[in-house]
Amino acid sequence: MHKLITYLLALCFYFYFGAAVYAQQSSLSGRLWDEKEQAVVGATVTLRKAGQHTSSDADGRFQFVNLPSGSYDILIKYQGLSDYEREIVVQAGANDLGNIVLSDKRIALGEVLVSTQRRTQTSVEVPVSVSVVSGDILNKMNIRQMDEMAEFIPGMQIQLQSPNNPGYVIRGITSDNGDARSQPRVSVFQDGISISRSRASVVELFDLERVEVAKGPQGTLFGRGAQIGAVHIIQNKAQDRFAAEVTGGYGAYNHRFVQGFVNTPVIKEKLANRFAINYEGRDGFIANRAGGRLNGKEVIALRNSTRLWGDNGTTADLILNYQYDNYPGTSFKSKRFAPAAGDTDPNTPAHLGADENEKLYIKRHVGGATLLVDHPLSNRWKLSSLSGFRAFKSDESFDADGTPAQLLWISEIAKGNQFSQEFRLNYEGDSKLSGFFGTSYFYENSSQDVPMRINERVLYPAYIAPLLGGQLGAQIGALGQSLNLPAEQIALLNQQVQQIFTTPPVMENGVVQPVNNLPNLQPLALGLINQLMGGQLPPGMTWDQLLASGMLPAGVLPQELIGLVSLLNGAPIEGIHRESSINYGRNQAIELFGDGSYDLTDKLKMTLGLRGTYEAQRGGYRALAANPPSVFGMIANNGSPNLLNPVANETIYAQKDYFSYVGRFALNYMFEKNNVYATVSRGRRPGVVNILPSETRYLKPEVVWSYEMGLKGIVDNGKLGYELNTYYYDWSNFQTLSFQQVEGAIAPQLLADDGGKASSFGVEAGLRYYFLPAVQLFGNYSFIDGKFSDMDENGNPQEYAGNQFRLTPKHSFAIGLDANFALKGSSSIYARPSYSYRSGVFFEDDNRPDLYQDGYGLANFTAGFRFQKRGIGYEIGAYGKNVLDTKYIIDAGNSGDTIGFPTFVGGTRSVVGAQIRVSF
């Protein structure tokens, strides 16, 4: 590894000094702006006689180096802006064309720029299903959260219980596991740096250039974790001009927010800085009768971006991010028991965390540093370096049973850090060949600590009593059969056992009914012994006297049953039991990759990509023996002091290494502004090292083969943009989550499992249409049929045969309008209503009908008035989220389901407010 890094650094120095030689030759540079004084990013700049072309960077700059002196025709093209063409003369030395302003076209949809293939292209050009939401659209639609953004991306849902517990769903495949031993299916990136670890992946959407969502296996482009897609968040970088903006608003539920940025040149055309801030707070939607409100929000996020311009077009960006979330806690509400004078609707008041030791909250710190360096080596070669460091710590406390009973309180403390380094060489040569190759290193170390408090006086009637009754009934039945007792007598004894373990419900009319003492089995046991001995026991003999007398026939009762009878003697039940467990994950990966496109003809292009990976995974587990021990653990859990966490007083580890590959092959045919494409690709999710004291399970890596066809383009003179695609996925070793009974725990554990074979078929469509110069209609539709196969690879029936993937609506769509009407002077009014719908979903792969959400739709809007005065832009508007106040749930099941108390989380309620924006 050290030799590899040394070699790459030496290569960088070689390229750097080599480029210094080129800098001595003639060069041509310039900078592109639009009429709004915004940098034009990604415009194609061509020198016709030289047969060379390049693209403008994030500051609108372009440059050609090592040019012979002479006359050239320069052509600059950018969809939505008028072409720029002129003849120029290049003289010896540096030639600067200065600022070039590209004028607007009257009506133009505008091709969205993407860097999905690691070079600047339009979304129409790439042979990939990629959806893009620009920073401008995010501002226009008042979108600040990732789940709100997902409504406008076909085939994608983001479930956001909280910033600590997100679920990413692309084309039916969910990535949401917080266990440190599991790896994500969906990669999340910030400026090319992976932030995919679940508890650290949610970021606020502010001051962004765009968000790209590439669907389908994207391992070649985004790494081994992009098994079914990638979300790429591209932040605004510092520019060589002064600009500033501030936006603030206030609405229902005390919703308040402020966000803005200041962009400042430090040294003209050499150094600039951009500082952005975002604050948002909101009271919770759910009143908590134990105090406060739940499902609220409070977050502050800061970003500082510094850009350095070097010679020969070199740029270096240092980006620092920090986000602090301080939420009041999530309402995980039970549907089994309602609070006093309340109901079980997840969207109505709850009664959670009543104990002073059960405060509900979410606190999360996430910080990172990114260094991006782009260094042109020539007009055709560019070296890129991407360095990233990220650290996080999240602490969530929640009432896992969802009732006032204070039955099961859980905290999750997740923390970790990661480092990544990528070197990439990009080539954009003649019109035939373009692509990149490189290497990367990734390191991650994380843990998940889960302390819990259990009220055993409530746990007994809720879970333990039926469990003990079943265990003892089975023992009595086996004993009766061994003694050849009549079936009627065995049934009577079992009935007596069940009566002993019958308790009142844990709650009645919202009032908790704890059980303070264990049942007394001694009268039942004495009666049984007396029957077996033909009534020979002296009247009034106690159980202890019987054991001491020696009258009990040897072997009549198993020692286990004798011990249980002695223990269950009406003794008091202790109140609070505490225990915890920690899982650890450490992952390292070294990757080599390459991806290139070749023009077979003027219109037909072939793309081939491959990424090879060596990865080392290590999983760890620790759960200290509870002190004092749980009496129920001693009784019902084979003498264990713990209830839910198998004991491992020392951390145990297991590890596994993998060599793997992913790749893609694509053909696409461009005609005018239209692209028809077909792809075959292989995706992979790393295996799981699932370590527990009783056994270690190594889940095989999940592999998917993807087959996709699509058509997208822009027609009708730029008025209509469209996309249409269909795909089929075939999975092996599909990784799911299931409740598994493990040694050392009285309740099943939710663990990663191999679901076997699965497949999905889907269709997606999207459009944007200017049917009037000032009015744009946009919409999308997605159909997904994702389910488990009937048989596994060996022809055996599967556990989830025919079941629908969880969190996957078969049908979803969104539709909206963007209307902007100019008034006198520089003022205008706008209105942007939208509506999104998704059909019913199951929340677990076992498709339980009680964990299901029917289809529902959400209506949103923004509207307002804009004007300028003395060069300053003002905007006054209104916004609304879920304006029809549709009630729905975003999650069901959760941790309480392990003890038979599934909980439900209500969705966002109606929030309407006003906002103002000032731009300098």
UniProtKB/TrEMBL annotation:
Taxonomic classification: Bacteria, Pseudomonadati, Bacteroidota, Sphingobacteriia, Sphingobacteriales
Keyword Membrane among UniProt keywords: yes
Name this protein carries in UniProt: TonB-dependent receptor
Subcellular location: Cell outer membrane
Organism, scientific name: Sphingobacterium bambusae
Cited Gene3D superfamilies: Carboxypeptidase-like, regulatory domain (2.60.40.1120), TonB-dependent receptor, beta-barrel domain (2.40.170.20)
Start and end residues of each TonB-dependent receptor plug domain: 125-229
Keyword Ion transport annotated: yes
Database matches in InterPro entries: Beta-barrel_TonB_sf, Carb-bd-like_fold, Plug_dom, TonB-dep_rcpt-like
UniProt keyword annotations, A-Z: Cell outer membrane, Ion transport, Iron, Iron transport, Membrane, Receptor, TonB box, Transmembrane, Transmembrane beta strand, Transport
Segments passing through the bilayer: none
Family note: Belongs to the TonB-dependent receptor family.
Primary localization class, coarse: membrane
Membrane topology: Multi-pass membrane protein
